[in-house]
């Protein structure tokens, strides 16, 4: 992919002006901008004048070091990068396209894509991803095309994708997805192409958001007509597009935020109320018992005092005897 004219003459200029020992490169290599081993190109890769760093198929175990701003496209496909650590692409802040297909990739750290605010295309296809942690794609505010095809994703949390305002195409085909979480498509307002085939879609209530999205986007993908759900038994092999909103009438409406707030508030409030009621009942009960005990004690004392021979007639100071006198009067 050689660029003609002035771009291919830049190495010549470099040759004349640069303090680097570029003249040690072969003339063929020097015909490309920042070629292998040059300051702007990772050592293991070949760089082209348009900013493409081609590191594909080089048995790399990690993202090569030495990425810098001139790199606009990074081809890392067909390597052995199993894990993407935090800040895996720092330095490549102007990256527009990143290809990570076929790496046996298993784990992407939540901050792996930090600093890639300009990235428009990300291909993570044909890897071994089973899960994606929340916030993984959050820094990629300019992302337009994302492929997660041919992985082992069984769930895809809305928090993993986050809100990607410009994402127009999302490939999810050939994974283990049986449903899409309710908030997932809501965070992707620009989405118009959605790859879905090759997943074990379950035709239950959980499929409602996806079916609603498919009805609103009549031609989201050429294969939409052939999308079938594989469970439950009764509905096996029904096309996804065949489900009208009426088919989900038995599912019940999802709760509105206000209702949810009431439900969430009701728990603690009723707990506190029952706690208060228990405490009130308990203190009433103990007060009653204490009073009954005091009375019983008083009743036990009284008959012993009455027949006391040494005391003579009850004194007027004795409240018990005053009562007796009043009763007799
Ligand atoms: C990248 O380099 C490999 C060989 O190293 C080559 O086969 C491939 O075509 C290159 N890709 C592009 C897009 O230039």
Q: How does this structure look, described?
A:
25% of the residues are buried. The protein has a domain at 255-291. The radius of gyration is 39 Å and the shape is elongated. With 329 residues, the protein is an alpha/beta fold. The strands form three sheets. It has an eight-stranded mixed sheet with strand order 1-2-3-5-7-8-9-10, with no helix packed on it. The chain has a two-stranded parallel sheet with strand order 4-6. It has a two-stranded antiparallel sheet with strand order 11-12. It has seven helices and twelve strands. The N and C termini lie far apart (126 Å). Bound molecules: 2-acetamido-2-deoxy-beta-D-glucopyranose.
Low-confidence stretches at least 5 residues in length (pLDDT < 50)?
Answer: 1-37, 306-329
Named once each, the bound ligands are: 2-acetamido-2-deoxy-beta-D-glucopyranose
How many angstroms does the end-to-end distance come to? Answer: 126 Å
Q: How helical, in percent, are the residues?
A: 25-40%
The number of distinct helices, counting runs of at least 4 residues, comes to 7
């Amino acid at each position: 992919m050689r660029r003609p004219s002035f771009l291919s003459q830049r190495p010549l200029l470099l040759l004349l002006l640069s303090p680097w020992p570029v003249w040690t490169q072969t003339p063929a290599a020097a015909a490309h901008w920042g070629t292998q081993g040059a300051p702007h190109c990772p050592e293991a890769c070949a760089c082209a004048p348009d900013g493409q760093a081609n590191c594909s198929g080089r048995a790399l175990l990690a993202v090569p070091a030495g990425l810098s701003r001139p790199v606009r496209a990074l081809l890392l496909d067909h390597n052995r990068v199993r894990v993407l650590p935090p800040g895996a692409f720092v330095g490549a802040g102007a990256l527009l396209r990143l290809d990570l297909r076929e790496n046996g990739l298993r784990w992407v750290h939540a901050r792996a894509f930090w600093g890639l605010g300009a990235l428009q295309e990300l291909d993570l296809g044909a890897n071994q991803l089973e899960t994606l942690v929340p916030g993984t794609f959050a820094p990629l505010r300019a992302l337009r095309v994302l492929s997660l095809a041919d992985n082992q994703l069984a769930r895809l949390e809305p928090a993993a994708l986050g809100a990607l305002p410009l994402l127009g195409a999302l490939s999810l085909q050939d994974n283990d997805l049986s449903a899409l979480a309710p908030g997932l498509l809501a965070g992707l307002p620009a989405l118009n192409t959605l790859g879905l085939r090759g997943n074990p879609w379950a035709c239950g209530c959980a499929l409602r958001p996806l079916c609603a999205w498919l009805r609103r986007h009549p031609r989201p993908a050429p294969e939409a007509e052939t999308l079938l759900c594989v469970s439950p038994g009764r509905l096996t092999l029904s096309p996804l597009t065949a489900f009208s909103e009426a088919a989900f009438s038995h599912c019940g409406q999802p709760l509105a935020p206000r209702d949810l707030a009431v439900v969430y508030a009701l728990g603690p409030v009723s707990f506190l109320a029952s706690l208060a009621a228990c405490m009130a009942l308990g203190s009433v009960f103990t007060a009653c018992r204490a009073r009954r005990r005091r009375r019983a004690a008083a009743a036990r004392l009284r008959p012993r005092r009455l027949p006391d021979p040494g005391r003579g007639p009850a004194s007027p100071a004795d409240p018990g005897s005053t009562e007796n006198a009043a009763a007799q009067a």
